[in-house]
Amino acid sequence: MTTKLHIKHMVSHRCKLAVRAALDQLGIACKTIELGEAEILHNLNGEQKAQLRNALQQIGLIVLEDKTDILIEKIKCVIVEMVHYSEANQYINFSDMLSEKLNLNYNYLSNLFSKNVGITIEQFIINHKIERAKELLIYDELSLTEISYRLNYSSVAHLSNQFKKNTGVTPSHYKALGGKSRIKLEEL
User: Fold this and answer.
1) What gap in Å lies between CA 96 and CA 99, rounded to an integer?
2) Can you name the residues that pair with 38 across neighbouring β-strands?
3) Which residues lie closer than 8 Å to 133 by C-beta, 6 or more apart?
């Protein structure tokens, strides 16, 4: 019998490695690790749960048990996965994708997210797209046209306008500044 652990702030492949290391160190067998969750092979007793919570807390991660908190973290993880780790270049309708992946009505997800996080899902997506654009600008491997395409913007102008609205500078000015104002994903 497997048990799923839901973990807050687990937003990168490095986080997945850190969770794997913590589980290994505690002797907890793990089947899979994805953004926001780990599937372990057996139930944990009270002492094991406490040790795991402590180990994860030391690396900035939190085990979630509240159903609302878990669903919100799932929404965030789907968005992080699509914006930061997907190489898909086709147009993505985030509302359809979230509904499909979480098997819930988008209006329900949107209302729950806004009520509990304080911003809309759309703004959360924009924040992540802008951070991803910053990262891609710093790498200097793609043109602004390629970045706008990769992040599913309708045009370079749309990306540039949204970028300036969120950061106060244009993408080219940000790049010239050396990209010093990046925000950690878990803080978005």
Assistant:
1) 5
2) 5, 33
3) 147, 151, 159, 163, 171
Give the β-pairing of 62-64 and 37-40. Answer: unpaired
CA distance 119 to 132: 19
The 10s digit of each residue's pLDDT in 34-70 is 999 999 998 899 999 999 999 999 999 999 999 999 9
Which DSSP symbol is given to 40?
Answer: E
Q: Are strands 30-34 and 37-40 parallel, antiparallel or unpaired?
A: antiparallel
Per the structure block, which two tokens stand in for 140? Answer: 């200097």
Residues of the chain with CATH 3.30.70.100: 3-65
Lookup: tokens for 81: 């996965």
Decide: 79 and 42 in contact? Cβ < 8 Å: no
- Quote the CATH superfamily of domain 69-187: Homeodomain-like (1.10.10.60)
58 close to 25: Cβ distance less than 8 angstroms? no
Sign of the four-CA dihedral 159, 160, 162, 166 = positive
Coil vs helix vs strand at 1? coil
Return the CATH number of the domain spanning residue range 3-65: 3.30.70.100
Round to whole Å and give the CA distance between 154 and 160: 11
The reply to whether the predicted model has a pTM over 0.85 is yes
